Amino acid sequence: MKTMLAVSVILIGFAGVFFLSGFIEKNRPPMPVGYEDEDLVFQGAKLKDFSLGLNGLIADWYWMQSLQYLGGKFAEKPDAKIDVNDLREFDPKLLYPLLDNAVSFDPQFYGVYEYGAVVLPAIDPALAVKIIEKGIENNPKEWRLYNQLGYIFWTQKDYARAATAYENAAKIEGASPLMKTMAAKMQTEGGSRETARAIFSQMFEEAQDTKTRQTAEIQLLKLDALDELDAINSVLQSFKQKNNRCAGDLREILPFLANVKLPANKDFRIDNNKNPVDPGGAPYILDKQNCTAQLDRDKTTLPLN
After folding, report:
1. Which CATH architecture has domain 42-217?
2. What pLDDT, in 10s, does the model give residues 14-28?
């Protein structure tokens, strides 16, 4: 009899839960826009002592979540152009908390710091500095973190602080000799194209994260495009002075471009229609009013800023 009573109580309880769940689901109030981007309830640092030795696995989980989260933000706006220098349009509020949680569980997870240094400046430079300073605190002998800090300050045109970061990197045993060179460049020619090329070349060579390497490669291609545009525009101005008119299109100046030497002995790229194209394959366009060549904002895959 007691057993039957207990079973009845349990069945009634399950029925009540089922009914209540259905009622709540049907009468749930609408969630505010952006609710999914509210701060994480649990901070990684607070949960670390309860991870039962699975810190590395949990750090990987947060890392994968951060990549999926940002990718999801891009997918929400399929028509938006992704500018690696400015991602504020996508409003990825949770990216920093996710990355911070990853390194809270694994303070030596260098790939996370590297990724944060490259992506976060396009969202909030202060957060980029914050995550790298956390990395330096946990890994004071890792010169690459000072290198990343120098890069962040360089993106903000804060060349004095960038020089200090590179100098600190150079003091660490095993640091790349380039760190001393970068410190000097920050003090003398921080905003130059050659400095940018040195930074992104070093980033490409040292990158441990695939996305960081891809970002460096894109930026290097953008620098190639700037060199090409300088050369094309120089030829356009010469053509205009000699002919008292601008070229009808860029194909008209191809014979003159053949005699131009680009940095590092690189060549112009020409498509099947005899148009000079940028390193991403999009034809340069001619602004006849100003008689200058430009990147095609609608077709280029290169960053515009």
Report:
1. Alpha Horseshoe (1.25)
2. 454 445 445 444 544
